[in-house]
Specification:
The protein is α+β, with helices and mostly antiparallel strands. The chain has 3 helices and 8 strands; from the N terminus they run ββαβββαββαβ. Helices cover 30% and strands 44% of the residues. The strands form 2 sheets. The protein has a 5-stranded mixed beta sheet. Strands 2-1-3 form a 3-stranded antiparallel beta sheet.
Length: 156
């Protein structure tokens, strides 16, 4: 079995929105079939124009948490991860200064049991918080699974 990402479109409010589903399958046709079953089972909007792509071992799964209520797993080549983190770090630094917060979390890299990267959660906009909230939330995240939390901090 291999990991496939199935890119497809849904219609909402007379507009097309791209969506993704990641699944394990023997081939692309099976990945599309499993995605359609998942959509039907969860009563999601009908998918059209699906395309399955086998994920390479150099690709990682990431999720962008932002102002949209729709959160879909996506994938990127590992080579782009460092640049994405640098870009978000500068945004987090700016947002932290503007808000007067003590900390701004902009990403969490989660690891699997075998030590490989399981997924990366990006926060755009970054989550700005005070000391108390930062320590509480990062402690909960760190206890849940092995991870690295990316944040910028105010100098005191």
């Amino acid at each position: 079995m291999a990991t496939y990402t199935v890119d497809y479109f849904i219609k909402r409010n007379h507009q097309e929105h791209e969506a993704h589903h990641i699944t394990e399958a023997q081939n692309a046709a099976e990945a599309i079939r499993k995605t359609n079953e998942f959509i039907e089972k969860n009563h999601l909007p009908h998918a059209f124009r699906p395309k399955a792509k086998k994920m390479s071992s150099k690709e990682i799964t990431y999720i962008v948490h932002g102002e949209s209520r729709y959160v879909f797993p996506q994938h990127m080549n590992m080579a782009y991860l460092a640049q994405s983190l640098r870009d978000l770090e500068s945004i987090a630094s700016r947002d932290m200064k503007e808000s007067g917060a003590d900390h701004a979390v902009y990403a969490v890299k989660k690891y699997s049991d075998d030590g490989g990267i399981k997924e990366v959660d990006f926060y755009d906009p970054p989550v700005c918080m005070n000391d108390k909230d930062f320590y509480e939330r990062t402690e909960i995240e760190a206890k849940a699974q092995p991870c690295v939390i990316y944040a910028v901090h105010k100098r005191k």
